[in-house]
Every structure is written in structure tokens, then in C-alpha cells.
Amino acid sequence: MTRSALDPSTEATIAELLEAMTLDEKASLTAGVGLWYLPPVARLGVPALKVSDGPSGVRGDSLIGRRSLSLPCGMTIGSTWNTALVGRLGEALAAEAVSKGVHVLLGPTVCIVRTPLAGRTFESYSEDPLLTARLAVAYVEGVQGQGVACCIKHFACNDQEFERMTISAEVDERTLREIHLPAFEAAVKEAGVWAVMTAYNRLNGTYCGEQPDLIAGVLRGEWDFDGLVMSDWFGTHSTVPAALAGLDLEMPGPAAWFADKLADAVRVGSVDETVVDEKVRHLLRLMGRVGILGGEPADGGAAGGVASGAEREEDSPERRAVARQVVIEGTVLLSNHALLPLDPAAVRSVAVIGPNAGVLEAGGGSSEVTPHRRRRFFEAVAERLPGASVVHEVGCRIDKELPTIDVSLVAVASGAGSGGSGSGGSGFSVEYFDNTGFEGEPVATEVAHLARLTWVGQVWPGLAAADASVRVKGWFTPDVGGAWRLGLESAGRSVCRVNGEVVIDNSDPQRGSGFYGAGSTLVEVERELAAGRTYTLEVDVWPRSSSWPVLGLRLAADRPAVADEFERAVAAARAADVAVVVVGSNRTWESEGFDRPDLSLPGRQRELVEAVIEANPRTVVIINAGSPVEMAWADAAGAVLVPWYPGEEGADALADMLIGVAEPSGRLSVTMPRAIEDTPAFGWYPGAEGKVVYGEGVFVGYRHYDSRDVAPRFPFGHGLGYTTFDYRGVEVEAGSGSESGSGSVRVRVALGNTGGRAGREVVQCYVRALDPVVPRPDRELAGFAKLEVGAGEEASAVIELNDAAFSRWDETTH
After folding, report:
1. 317-330 and 83-99 helices cross at what angle (nearest 10)?
2. Residues tagged active-site
3. How far is CA 642 from the centre of its chain?
4. How far apart are CA 419 and CA 228, in angstroms?
5. What confidence tens digit (pLDDT) does each residue in 141-168 have?
């Protein structure tokens, strides 16, 4: 489909509303009112639109840990190469959005992986534009088919976090069209995406939010996009240039450039009122598509399946099953020297080792959600090997800073209200006071399932952060005795008490960099705590001044140091039948806002992997990271699995794959390099003097490795399974054809499963220009198909290649 057409009555309603609105009312709809909402026009019954961060879950409007299904990251999704499964994932995301009363999901992220050092690599799908486009279309159709909007991002070339708010991506037209825009174009033309988010960065010198060639020219002019264009958060930089370029909505609120300033620009003649009308038309059209125009109360809520009222925590078995399948089909088995799958009957002892062998990690930033469960991987392994001894050793630690307290060790203090977010279990009770001195009874309570809590503007509906104080309470039971390091940082003033005694006084905080720049430095203290004893924890936070807009806190706690943890891990590996080492990264190393320094695994992880493999060659290495890492030890490992950041179903899915209950069937959607010097953008990243030149041109990812004869550690498209396949013939014939020229070539591949179990294979079709008139990559992905084939059976993959599969961008003939 090219777009979702509105029925004539809805279009008529939009026209009537535009006619009835004053200029100020129309202008008010061009900016948000807070982080997640647009303003209503109560006089005319126009409701408040609600958006939420994605793309690996739906957080809702809470920044204090309201629970949602934590889904696999973009790199896991990209590695599935399965559009049908990604469509089902989109449907699950839409259901999550409905539970949170969300109308617009801020995703998917479809920027191309240009450098593996980019801090948000884990959010993207691939280094290849065709693979990214096909998955983006499936994702958008899955979400929007359920009446929830997608806002595809970040348009365009938001491919690094270094100087992300100001850097200018200097990109030639051919590279832009062949590599960096196809996924956006497919989402618009094929999936009919309802909203687009502009990137922070500049494109060829101009901010993306005020780039007329990009928005008015390509998006609206060439692709005929009729949806909403919104800025990234705080990514608007002007009134008149942004308005005339085609930006519809400034986020978040309160407005800095649109709304009142846009109305003023109309009054002085800098912007014609018809420009504002078009922006509001795009917004009302979006409201019509998500079903909230007409008959819905002006204070928010939605029709079309999105419920009004409090957000709900829905732990759906059906959605969890989809998430687990994505992990299984997105986990890449890089190597396997006859070690996997393990035979439960033959394994007597397993050592599960590594800093990520407990709760599997995730990337940081806007894609974070609070999971329903924090499943420990080593416990999932032990459940599947009941006849074996399973031991767990950390080996080394990778936290860049004092880690946030393990919430699984904290129980919600009694007396907490639900506040729309549930109660009981692990977490904290949160009490809100309508004064800055904790006077009287709290006016509201709820439960938080995080230990990093943030409130922007208001701490509770109708209660401004500047006029409030917040008390967070929980019962902390250490699992290890000894000298614990406790820490507290906050936005605002704060203190931390243990059993009623103030142990950290941050009431005169030193300015730090967290909490949107409003945070303090981390204040640390050491305290002796006994294992198994329960302590009361209380943190009070209150504003610095009468105009303070942000409150927040992060409670940190680190277990007592173990002097010989590295040696204990190696000894456990040596004594076990099989060692499983889970290494990788976490949100302190991979997140929006900063890039990685290099490809190395943080801390002593490389040393740990090499020592464990030397002690026990029957070692499975699992890489729990969101982007490629160095792995000089890969050939020596018994097996290497990459689930990326798999979300809350990851532990059970990986345990199933270890014993063969499930088969990893992912294929790399990015190249695994041997060294950062081998990567395509190495000579140009991160740029200088406010510019980053895309000097690699169209030779991104495998295009570079193939064409420049650079050997990767593992190539794009690589991945093993637990069975074997035989390609039994390839036929190429004329395709079905159409008025648009699609289906010009059909490729049919006969595939036989020669192994003893069912398995999945990804058939990949590449094209090569035999006599190119301009430099072309040695090969380019043109189509693919993922098949499931039973043991001893045969199946056929049919791949249709349209004209675009063989074309290149030519400005002179376009």
C-alpha cells in the first residue's frame, strides 16, 4: 500500500476543524506540551495525541520504570532476515502501545550502520539498504495494521553520536539515494508510514529539521508523503526556516520555536497561514488514521483500540512468544566445532562465566524499557540441565561507573499504591508530596521498577517538579556480605538513608552531566552489609530552586570486590565438561549520546575468554553486545553465538538453543571486522571541524570488504545452524512484470535439507554490474528468502527482482 486513505467523512471533519480554528489554536498544535503529548483543542473536541519511545518496546509516559515487554534490539531483528516474523513483531508492538494508551510509536530506526562504533548501532537493522528496507516495511505494516502509527527515524544520516546535535553529514547525492534513503522511501511508498522524525544532525550543512531539499523536495515532493514530520527531541533550531522546509511538529514541549512564535511569524508576514494549515492538516490526518478524531474527549485517550486512562502493565504470553522467536531467528551461530547443541544426557557439569552471564544486558538511551522479568541466564541453563552441576562465576566486571543497584534485591515497601503501574515484587514505592519539604501525607503513591528515576516538568499530574518532593523506599536484602559501595546522584537535592540513618548527603550537589544536564555528580560511600539481612532504603529528592524543572535520582550499589574472581572463573571452566562465557557490553558503553572508543570488549573480557578457552576448549562464547566486537579468539572457541541485545526472553531462548530445543537461524546483517582499521568509514569517522565526510561513498559494509579485498572476521550474511543444506539448482527467468516494472526477473533456488533435523536457511541473491560505467560494488544484495525445511526434505525459494535491483542513481536522468 502507498498510504492509508481516509474516508471522505474524516477528510471533511479535518476541513471543518481547520476552518473553525483560530490561528493561535492551529499554531498550538505545532509543538508538544511535555515529553510525550500534544495539546488538545478542547473547544473543538480535538484530543491530545500521545507518543512513546520505541523501537524495542513501548515505554509509555513513565520514566520511573513502568514495565513493558522488553523486545530484541534492532540488530537482533535485522539478523532474522524474516519479514513475516518482523510483521508479527510489529503487531505485538502495537498491542503494547494499546496497553500504554499510545497513538504513535517512535520507531523503527532505519539508519544504516556506517561505522560499528556508533553508539546507537544496536537500534539499526543492517549495513545494507535493501535488507533494512524490507524489514522496515514489515515492521511498519505490522504496527500500523493494528491502528497505531509508526514514526520512522532518523531522517537522515544520523549514523554516529559524536557531535550528533550539530555534526554535518557531507554526503553526495548518489550515496544518499543508493544507501541512506531507500529504507525511508520504501516505508513511505510501500508501507505508507504515517509519521517521520527528522535527525539531529545537519545534512550537507543544513539541519535536517529545516532541510527543504530533504523534507519538501524528496519526502513530500518525490515520494508524495502526506503524513506528519516531527523533530527529534530538542532537534528544532528555527521558526521560519524549519516551517518553510516542511517540519510540522516541534518536540518536546514547551515550544522553543513553533506554537506562539510560529503564529507571530504569520502575523508579521514571514510565514503564510496556509503553511500552518498544512502542518495542522498533517497532524489531524494522523489523528484520523489512529482513530481519535470525532467523539473522543479532549483530555486524551484514543479510539481505534488505544485505551483511555491509566497505562497498563500487560504481560502477554502471546507477545512473549513472538519476542522469543525473534531471539531464536536473530541469534547468529558464527562458528561451531561440533560442540552445539549440547546433549543434556552427556553433560555432567557446566561453568557459566562472564559479566553478562547473570541478567543479559541491553543498550541505553531512548530505546530502554523496564522488563517484566529479569531472568538470569545461568539459572535458565541450570533448569535445562537438571542432571548437571551448573556453577556461575563473574570472572571480571565491565561497569564504566558504579552500577545501578540490582533491583531484584529490592522489595517494594508496603503501603505503595498502584498509580497505574502495579505494585508488589521487586522495586521501590514512590511517594509524592505537594510541597518541597515532605510535609503532611503524600498526595499520591506508585511503584517504580527501576533505580534510576526521572520526572520532567511534573512529577504527578497537576504537580510541578518545582513544587514537589519525592520519597523513594524499598527493602534491600544483599546477596553477598561485606563492604558494599553505595552511591547517589540526582537532579535536585537528595539524601539516602539506610535503616533511618543518613549515609549519603547530596543536599548541596555538585553539578554533573546526567539527567539532561541537570544532574549532580555521583556521591559514594562504603558500608558493611550482611548477606540475607533486610535493610530499609530511603531516598529523598527535592528541587534546587522554585523554578527547577527536573527531578531525578540514581541509586547505585556494587557488591564487595572479590580478589580472585578471574582465577575462580578459569578454575571453574577447567573443572567443567563445558564452559559457557557470556561477554559483551551494556548501556554504559552503548547508548545514544556517545560512541564507543574502539571495537574491544570492555574490561578484561578478551583476557577472560582466552584464558577460559585455554583451560577448556569445549567453550561456548556468547556475545551479548549491540554491535560488532573484536574477537581474535574466535577460531579457538568451541562455538560462538551472537544474540546481540535479545530483550527479556533472551535467557530462555539462548538456553533452549544451547541444548538444541531451538536452532539459532540468524544471519549477520553487518560485517564482523577484524580491526577497526578495516572498516569502510575508518578514514573519515568521526569527522573534524563540524563535518563528517561520507568518503566511502556507496562502498558501505560488505560492499567495501568485497570490492577492496579486505578480509572480515565474519562476512555479511554469514550464519550456521544445526543442520546442513544443499543448493540443488538455480533458475533465472522473466518475472511477472507490472506497470511499474517490478518483477522483471525471477530467481528460483532448489534447497535440500541434508541433515537429521529441521532447520532454516536464508537464500541470498546478489547482483553484479558486469561493465559498470561508474564504480560499483563487487556485489549488491538484491533479494532474499528465509525457508524452513524439514529433515531430508526439499523446498524452493522464489525471489523476485525488480528493476531497482539492477539500477544505480544517476542525477542526469532521474
Report:
1. 140
2. 232
3. 17
4. 32
5. 999 999 999 999 999 999 999 999 999 9
